[in-house]
Amino acid sequence: MRADARQNYDHLLAVARDVVTEQGADASLRDIARRAGVGLGTLYRHFPTREALLEVLLRASLDELTQKAGELQTSSSPDEALASWFREAVAFAHRYRGVVALMAAAIADPGSALHASCVTVRSAGTRLLLRAQAEGMARADLDGADLFALIGALGWLGDQPSFAPRIDHLLGIIASAVLTKPASSDVKGERRRRIPP
Amino acid sequence: MRADARQNYDHLLAVARDVVTEQGADASLRDIARRAGVGLGTLYRHFPTREALLEVLLRASLDELTQKAGELQTSSSPDEALASWFREAVAFAHRYRGVVALMAAAIADPGSALHASCVTVRSAGTRLLLRAQAEGMARADLDGADLFALIGALGWLGDQPSFAPRIDHLLGIIASAVLTKPASSDVKGERRRRIPP
DNA sequence: ACCTGAACACCGTTCAAGT
DNA sequence: ACCTGAACACCGTTCAAGT
């Protein structure tokens, strides 16, 4: 990568971060190139699609989210881990307005530049969900795709100015549907062999 | 209203119904005028905003939804009434792709042509919610705005091809968060005086 | 009263021409 | 290798000119 190309790439990314913060995921690509003082073709050379640009913008946050899931896997109880990761995932979905719609499309389109990232996040959530389910702490009739969908739904709610103020409350309500009662272990009769005899 | 105007109005509406069904609520207005064989200005004369057009397109369904709420108010038990109206409302939100986002914006904007319709629907839902809450059959920490938001969220989920197949399932999950346990009356000790002594 | 379509200011995307 | 911007095909919205 030539030095001038590298510089354009970096500057484009910095400007894109600002513009997408202001205008959302469907921001004008023309505007980004313009503000970066770069030809429109240069933007398309570095980021052939909108998804490719957003993938780079989101990568760091997505990695954090995946890493967080790994940490919670061992540091917290299954229900707390799932609950706080869920909260974190919804917060991520708020990073840029309109990003959830792109992610919803990307998860079903292997050709999207965002596909891999979305699958990774969904997998991270699935692992937390499975652990909670194994302990009877999460609804059994739910899979990773459902969890991903609910994160998306809450992300969308947060994107709507009329609903955003209630988003924490709505998150609590939906979380309560995912997490089953405390189900404090070994109380319903049949032990679950948390420590083998 | 002159005869030719009336005819344009009606034809425009019929064409709009088709185009919005195909392309969603953000369909091209130009395309609608074109397919209707009418000048672009004619469309704007009859429907000064996109919301005005959709308001007419949705009015019948919205009225049905409000009426249905009234019927359920007396025909069903509070929890069943709320559950089945909720289902109906989500189905409505599916009528045209992308309509929920417009409604979310409209409910916060008194200037929108869709504002009144949205408020009416929200009120209808609020009444069903309050009745269920009075009987302890719905979560107490929920108001009509929250219910409206949840309907919107499910509508959005249904708009995403990747989530649409699971929409009935997700609806059940969210509905279970709104409806509290059966709470079969008079079981928790304090009666609620359903029939005055 | 009502209709028309050009005009304006925007898009996304591509690609020949330049350095 | 990389950059540029004109070109093309679209938008939404307005409004002078027509009937």
UniProtKB/TrEMBL annotation, chains A, B:
Keyword Transcription (UniProt): yes
Known DNA-binding region: 28-47
Domain HTH tetR-type: 6-65
The keyword DNA-binding is annotated on this UniProt entry: yes
PROSITE patterns, per database record: HTH_TETR_2
Keywords, comma-separated and alphabetical: DNA-binding, Transcription, Transcription regulation
InterPro entries recorded: Homeodomain-like_sf, HTH-type_TetR-like_transc_reg, HTH_TetR, Tet_transcr_reg_TetR-rel_C_sf, TetR_SbtR-like_C
Name of the protein: TetR/AcrR family transcriptional regulator
UniProt organism field: Pendulispora albinea
